[in-house]
Amino acid sequence: MSDIDEFVISGPKKAYTVTFDSLGKYLFGCLKKRNSDQVFGVDVSLNQTVTCGSLLEKSVKLSIALKKMSLTKKDVVALICENTLNSFACLLALTYIGVPANLINFLYTFRELKHVFNISKPKCVICPQSNLANVLSLKKELKFIEYIILLDKPEECVKDVEDVESLCRTITINIEEFEPVDGTANDTILMCLSSGTTGLPKCVELTNDNFIAIIDFLLDNRCSNNAFDDVTVSVLPLFHIYGVLIYLTAAVSSMKLVTMKSFKPQIFLKSIEKYKATKLYTVPPLLQFLTINETIKDFDLSSVKEILVGGAPVGNALYKEASKKLKPTLIRELYGATELGGFCAMQYGFETVKNSGPLVNNMLLKVIDPQTNKSLPAYEIGELCLKGRSRMKGYFNNPTETNNSKDEKGFYRSGDLGYYDEVGNIYITGRFKELIKFKAFQVSPVEVENVILEHPAVKDCAVFGRSDNKTGELTTALIVIRDGFTATEEEMVTFVAERISPQKQLHGGVRFVNTIPINPTGKILRRELPHLYISANQ
């Protein structure tokens, strides 16, 4: 459907299939209805099978333990999560008591954790053993952190540090008597990290009301195409909105979820074969692996009927090659944003032309000219702006960036360039925003630049994403060295690697230049950086 005056197109306008004031109550009800002996998932990394009953029991016990810490919906709990079912049990527990969960990458360094903590100000931090030293140091420095809980078994006894298993052992509960707390539509229930279109990572607030639209999408067979016997093997992290949606799909449907902490090619393929996965959720680098890796032929992947790919645009060449080599497996591309609760558009079936499909139910889209802000008709390229019930409440404690993220009519400005055709299919052609996408991870150039500028030899720098067929974009730095100083590319790459998590490191290398292009107000002219990089190579 289209609004002729403003060139606004819409996904199907349908009544929502679910309604609730508390996501926690809804998820608790979904799990409680399931057979307690039914397998919810398998944690390959721990060689552990988790039933619906055991997941429900652990999440309920943990929610009671957390409530005893006087945590309320006015507080925040930082969940530094690995891709494990144990992490998901913690997330469920927090939804039951209505406490916002700030999901954080377990690979984050001390400085990255400090940046996020200073935004969300968590009263409690739940983390793996690998993050404990940094969290303990931050607890001394940041007085708002009162509790630390370990996801796994502690290697040694640490004062004032609890662990999930020990907390659960202290609780006795009859599931039939348990009731999650009430909520309101506008209560924040989840905070995922996003760099938005510019700047440093921010905390995206998603509410109970947002999740009505999100769950509706997950249950819509036109979109999710769920079957009662679906099985997926997932390596996509729980701290990413894409990973959250996979876990939620397993909770609200009967899909069995097989998880891995990290991607290990042989174990991934063996797990698909062993558990007879029917559906795979991927990002472009993982789709490329499934398309070109020679070891694929050593495994029986015939059970896979469908591959969904999102997180970043799929290149035309990869889409064509994957569609050809993996046939008859159905490959469906998705498009979305954390700020919109996940997915906004997706393909519904085999496509002869690569696109991101039409809009999901009740989602609105307009394409605007970035210079004039006027909306454009079909086939004209501009910035994609979207609006729907799943659009975020805002960036936590950041009203300025929240206001900058949308126009006067409430459309989220994605920063992505693209267009739509006459039947409403969405095509992504590039990016207007400065954000870098490396293997579907968001990388903020400003964040990396701030690290580089700490080096004593650096006078100025600029970071941009260099196009790469395998990873999407490679984070690349252009650096101006101070007079009287010297530095090598290897030195700068190592300097950054020691201070920032792997996905944000300088995988595209470094080039030394005489000056960084800026406009009269001092802003970096990022569109000129690729040309400057090429010149520096000559």
TrEMBL record:
One Gene Ontology MF term: Photinus-luciferin 4-monooxygenase (ATP-hydrolyzing) activity
Catalytic reactions of this protein: firefly D-luciferin + ATP + O2 = firefly oxyluciferin + hnu + AMP + CO2 + diphosphate
Domain AMP-binding enzyme C-terminal residue range list: 447-523
The entry's keywords: ATP-binding, Luminescence, Magnesium, Membrane, Metal-binding, Monooxygenase, Nucleotide-binding, Oxidoreductase, Peroxisome, Photoprotein, Transmembrane, Transmembrane helix
Needed co-factor(s): Mg(2+)
UniProt xrefs under Gene3D superfamilies: 3.30.300.30, 3.40.50.980, Luciferase, Domain 3
Enzyme class, UniProt record, top EC level: oxidoreductase
TM region positions: 76-99, 239-258
Residue stretches in coiled coil: none
Biological-process GO terms, alphabetical: bioluminescence
Pfam families: AMP-binding, AMP-binding_C
Ranges for domain AMP-dependent synthetase/ligase: 37-396
InterPro entries tied to this protein: AMP-bd_C, AMP-bd_C_sf, AMP-binding_CS, AMP-dep_synth/lig_dom
Stored PROSITE patterns: AMP_BINDING (PS00455)
Localization per Swiss-Prot or TrEMBL: Peroxisome
EC number: 1.13.12.7
GO cellular component, one term: peroxisome
Family the UniProt entry places it in: Belongs to the ATP-dependent AMP-binding enzyme family.
PANTHER family membership: GM05240P, LONG-CHAIN-FATTY-ACID--COA LIGASE
Protein name: Luciferin 4-monooxygenase
Source species taxonomy: Eukaryota, Metazoa, Ecdysozoa, Arthropoda, Hexapoda
